[in-house]
Design brief:
This protein is α+β, with helices and mostly antiparallel strands. The protein folds into three domains: about 90 residues, Cytochrome b5-like heme/steroid binding domain (Flavocytochrome B2, Chain A, domain 1); about 230 residues, Oxidoreductase, molybdopterin-binding domain (Sulfite Oxidase, Chain A, domain 2, Alpha-Beta Complex), CATH 3.90.420.10; about 130 residues, Sandwich (Immunoglobulin-like). The chain is built from eleven helices and 27 strands. The strands form six sheets. It has a five-stranded mixed β-sheet with strand order 1-5-4-3-2. β2 and β3 form a beta hairpin. It is globular and about 90 Å long. The chain binds protoporphyrin IX containing FE (HEM), ligand MTE and molybdenum atom.
Amino acid sequence: TSALPIFSQEEVTSHRSLEDGVWVTYKGGVYDITEFVAMHPGGDKILLAAGGALEPFWALYAVHNQEHVLEMLSEYKVGELRAEDLKKQQAVQTLDPYSSDPERHPVLRVNNLKPFNAEPPPEILSDSFITPSAIFFKRNHLPVPRVDPASYQLHVEGLPGVLTLSLEDLKTRFPKHTVTATLQCAGNRRSEMNQVKQVKGLNWGIAAISNATWGGARLRDVLLAAGYGPEVAQRAFHVQFEGLDKDITGTTYGASIPLNKAVSEEGDVLLAYEMNGEDLPADHGYPVRVVVPGTVGARNVKWLGKIIVSAEESSSHWQQNDYKGFSPGTDWDTVDFKSAPAIQELPIQSAITTPADGAVVNRSLEEVTVKGYAWSGGGREVVRVDVSMDGGKTWQVAQLRSSEKGQAPEPSPPPGRAWAWKLWELTAPLPPEAQELEIVCKAVDNSYNMQPDTVPPIWNLRGVLSNAWHRVKVNIRE
Ligand code: HEM
Ligand code: MTE
Ligand code: MO
């Protein structure tokens, strides 16, 4: 509407004294207030804003949030601030780096707000085989980056051909594959380790795990398009991923996986742009994330910016100095992160989602239904879940389910590619004498891996890989 000239921030900044003139900016407008300074009701404090933006000062002195102040200001308008400078200004003014984080579902249990880390209530988690995206657990280390899909670029490095792909390229140049895969954070069930002895990390309950159907290009296909071949396999052993989320020093989230997992036809590693049939939500990596089925959540890099095929693992903090397992005897004074491998495939896991620990059931009901989930890493299939109502003295076998309740079972996955969890259920009579039940579950995978019975022997300072038999106590009301 206005034919006023456009000024750069540099030009505005050069006007910051009564001699050179006093210019300020407000919401993208440029104002020459040299004449006003002497008239300002608040005195010469006004010069503090000379050459820059009014917003941070007016945020301190709310007296300016009035119509007549804006009218007064409008008389001094001389131009507009260059759009890219306005953007920069706004980025600085939004002191909160988390201000562009998306909205979240109110049912989530928040372990940490900034960065956002939350899990669904367990009893809701096991209601669906495919976890609705809104309640899928969320684990962010940094602010959610807002990525423009039109200018998004994915860089592939370390192969004979250097490849840069737009989102459109990824969607059109490679066949779309869908994979139903469970993601689990290494810290799932950390709170049980905390009960044994304090660990460092977010106090996750049993729901830092969820299951979704992911759609995208196969990483294998993209690596082949960039010239991956047998000669690369001679020198490179890892595929590194870099996220677009950064800390204030510009360090991005990063991780890596073994090259053989990445290029294997049976590995099913995706560059996913869809989650449960829709675009990835902002919290889950929009527009593109890596999905590494069977592998710890931390390697499933969200907001993917770069892929590097390399002789080395990712040098990121999260690959080198975090997400590793140690002996219960290792403490923060003695830990040597170099001595342990980065977690990749996760061990066998199961937990009881309902009843909740401390729940009360009426004797008159005569029976209790126990529900939960079970999953194993590396594509190993859960073949059995044992449930005990008496703290582990006697056991019954639970019924396993690989589809939504009431729907026909999905066909079994090919051997070594059981990426999705199983939900399980058991209804058992209430023991006539007992006033309290200790319900326990433990799962078995097709390599006959089983869960350890208690936490202390697997306790570790970082509280990862917490997969002991899950126990809940239930009181019986007469
Ligand atoms: C008060 C205008 C910039 C600090 C006021 C008032 C006006 C005004 C109209 C009186 C409000 C009322 O009582 O209803 C402006 C305009 C500005 C400007 C048009 C920019 C062109 C600033 C800046 C600062 C500042 C940059 C601080 C660094 C104050 C203070 C008062 C005040 C402290 C309150 C004085 C008191 O309560 O006695 N300003 N102001 N102003 N202004 Fe500003
Ligand atoms: N990718 C990026 N870029 N930044 C992150 O903070 N967190 C990782 C992984 N990928 C993370 C990331 C961790 S530790 C986990 S457990 C999973 O994302 C969580 O994925 P979700 O939030 O989709 O559940
Ligand atoms: Mo994680």
